[in-house]
Amino acid sequence: MLVQQMLFMASGDGFAGEQESWTNPSNATNNLFYTWTVPAGVTAISAVVVGGGGGGSPAVSFNDGSDEYQTRPGAGGGGGGLTYNNSITVTPGETLNICVGCGGSRGNSNSNDQKDQANAGYGGHSWIKRGGTNGTVLIGATGGRGGQGAGDY
């Protein structure tokens, strides 16, 4: 199962068309970065960008100080955002930078104070940029929020 995938299509005068996709596998713990050079004759691309999903938080049990254990439910992580654009202007020969966001880390239930440590990590943002990784964002999608389990009610 893939955590996230990015897909886009390119077309232009004298160009038959091309489809590319980049993925971040389910065991990846970091955003993955790629580059793509715009082919000759291509002046516009279509893109679908999906942010990484947030991690889930576990249910936890803990001693509340009265020698009775309390159980707090876990929570699933939020889905990554999705953005698409069917007409992104590009220049033949330019290099686009691509980031595919990773999924959020799972919550931790192995601490001494489990009720405060079960929150999970956010998913990574995904984007296509012009001009390097610090360049202009052409399209982007945010990562999902991590599950916020346990804690005091």
Could you give the topology of this structure?
Blueprint: E1 2-12, E2 15-25, E3 32-37, E4 44-50, E5 60-63, E6 69-72, E7 82-89, E8 95-100, E9 126-130, E10 136-141
Antiparallel strand pairs: 1-2, 1-4, 3-8, 4-7, 5-6, 8-9, 9-10
Molecular structure report:
The protein is built from no helices and 10 strands. It is mostly beta strands and 153 residues long. The strands form 3 sheets. The protein has a 4-stranded antiparallel sheet, with no helix packed on it. Strands 3-8-9-10 form a 4-stranded antiparallel sheet, with no helix packed on it. Strands 5-6 form a two-stranded antiparallel ribbon.
Q: What keyword list fits this structure?
A:
153 residues; four-stranded antiparallel β-sheet
Structural class: mainly beta
Mean pLDDT: 77
Series of secondary-structure elements, N-terminal to C-terminal: EEEEEEEEEE
Strand proportion: 35-45%
**Which stretches are low in confidence, meaning pLDDT under 50 for 5 or more residues running?**
none
Assembly state (oligomeric): single chain
Number of helices: 0
- Would you report the number of β strands? 10
